[in-house]
Write a structure and sequence with these properties.
This protein has four helices and 31 strands. The protein is mainly beta.
Length: 342
Amino acid sequence: MPFTSSRAPGWAAVLVAAALAVPSTGGAPAQAADGPAGFAAVNALGQNGTTGGAGGRTVTATNAEQFLEYIDSLEPLVIQVSGTISITSKQGVRPNKTIVGVGATGHITGGGLDFYRSYNVIVRNLRFTNAEDDAVNIGQNSHHIWIDHNTFSGAVDGSVDIVRGADYVTVSWNHFDHSDKSMLISHSDGASGTDVGHLKVSIHHNFFDHSRQRHPRIRFGEPVHVYNNYFLGNELYGVASTQNAGAVVEGNYFENVPHPLYSASGYGDSGPGRAVQRNNIFVNSGTPETAGTVVEPRTYYGYTVDPPQSVPSAVRAGAGHGKIAPMAAAAAATQLFVAPLS
């Protein structure tokens, strides 16, 4: 479902005080200012952070017909997903939507979500299983997308792919449960024309749980900021920066990962990329490759890195669907956020 409008929402963003604490369930740590961190919070491309369907109606989808109607709507919407919804292929999501699971019940199976020139979308608290292609595909210059607190398993292709000039994306607090191809950033060695200067992505507090590869596999994007993630038992590799991409990998915990980071050698048929690694912990894991210099994420946003030794317990407790309290889901649906720049 192509969508080509360049309109931006007319509301003004408001700053949520950092002191706002949202209680969590399932032992998850409370998070302050329950909005996106990293690139999805940056003011750019006419969009003041990522606000989703804030200001629009709240609706509930309990079947595929309702769900597909809501994500194809032109109006801002907060779409609550209750129960299991079976879809096929990749279904287009128009701009200005919050798609959020109800409790631990929200489940999308069989198909996935597709972003084609879309923007300002939040996807939270959902379980994605057995997608026949990608579970989430962010492409064609889509921007300001926040993928948060979801669980991914069984996708035939990527769990979350970010390609074809997409920008200002944050992927946070997700559980990649024994997935094969977790996350691809740029789809091809020949995509420099669309991807150079784009693909700015923040990846934080995700649980890469015995997932095989692509955590992420990057071409061209810079900076891709990979911080405070838990990499456990990743058979092929952790992060691969190729085709002159620039990755900053910091504050992560790698356990039983034979190849935590590829860069200088490239990967597969792709040429070398650039990578900076700092303050990571490697347990029964290989030696990371580093190469060159990378644009610092602080050029775009301020952030705090948690001590890497705390990452496994925090991420196990907090990542995945069903780990945010109803208050947190409501906050994502109704509040507007901006992030401080530094």
